[in-house]
Each structure stands twice: as C-alpha cells, then as structure tokens.
Amino acid sequence: MEFKVPDILSVSRAAASLLLLLLEPLSDEFLIAFTLIASTDLVDGFLARRFGISSYGKALDSSCDAVLAVVLLLCLIPNLDWEQWMIWWIAAIAAMRLVSIGIGSGRFSEPGFVHTYFNKAAGLFLFLSPFLLRILDLDVVVYLVCGVATISALEFLYINCTSRNFDGNYCGILFQSKV
C-alpha cells in the first residue's frame, strides 16, 4: 500500500495529538499546538481532493480525526468540572458513531465514514471547543458542540442504515449534491 502526502499528514495529526497530553489544557501553548495539529486536517483534505481521494485515505483521515477528538477529551475531562449528563451525552454520541461505522462496514464492505455538512459542522465546533471553553461556561459549550454532534451522528446513522450504495461524499439528508 502506497502512502500519499494526505495520508502522511493524517497519521502525523494522530501522532502529534499525543503531544497535547503533555501540555496544560486550555493554556496558550495548548491552543497553539492544538491549532497547528488540527489544521493538518484542512491541508490533507485539500491535497486529497487535488490528488484524488482513496477510500483508504478517507477512512484513515476520519480515524485520525477520531484520535485527535479522543486525545482532546483525555486532556479536558480530568481538568474541567463535568456533570454526569455531559459525559453520558458524549458517550452516546461516540456509541452512535461506532454503531454507524459498524453498520456501514457491514453493509458496504468498507468503513461507512460519511463526510456530510453536519459532520463538517460538528468537526468545526469540536475544533472551536477549547477556545470557547476559555470564554463560555462548560455547559454552554457542551450544549453547542454536543447538539451539533448529535445531529451529525444521527444523520450518519440514518445514512448508513438507509442508503442503497455507499457515498462517502454525500452532503447529507437535507442536501442533494456532493460535498
């Protein structure tokens, strides 16, 4: 299997995200490192579209995004005053996404990662969350991020359950064209 530049950027994002565990969460250094690490997602996406996207590359990119999200949670959960409902909501979103991936994999013989507009919005809110946590209360940020992520996860599940054919670039149930 041949690694392409977008794949290398995706893997570097996953590996570099582990460095966040060494920084004080929400510090200036943390936010700078997080921004640099997360920005590789924009660059690898641009390059992947320019050079041709493989199903392997899409799955790798989504998997590396998940690594960054998990590391972000590992940094934030021990350091913020979470209420139990917040943790349960995050766990429910993760469970929906895992079930969706399993259904997509079973139905289409490849990981069912779908890059809808709601998925991109959820990613944007997740990216903004450390910055929002510096200016807004935790519960407000959880409502914003988890609200959008829940819509995205439900759409992801619906698409993988009802689509006749897999289309990783499907814009979403409210849109007709491709991303």
Folded structure, characterized:
- Helix content is 70%, strand content 0%.
- The protein is mainly alpha-helical and 179 residues long.
- The protein has 2 domains: 1-79; 81-179, no CATH class.
Name the features.
single chain, mainly alpha, 70% helix, globular, 179 residues
Number of structural domains? 2
Q: Please state the CA-atom Rg, rounded to the nearest Å.
A: 16 Å
Strand segment tally: 0
Low-pLDDT stretches are none
| Mean residue pLDDT | 91
The helix content, as a percent range, equals 55-70%
* Major beta sheet summary: none
Return the structural class.
Answer: mainly alpha
Quaternary state of this entry equals single chain
Distance between the termini: 26 Å
Order of helices and strands: HHHHHH
Shape designation: globular
Helices, by number, come to: 6
Strand content: under 5%
Detail the topology: elements first, then pairings.
Layout: H1 5-17, H2 28-51, H3 55-76, H4 84-108, H5 117-132, H6 138-162
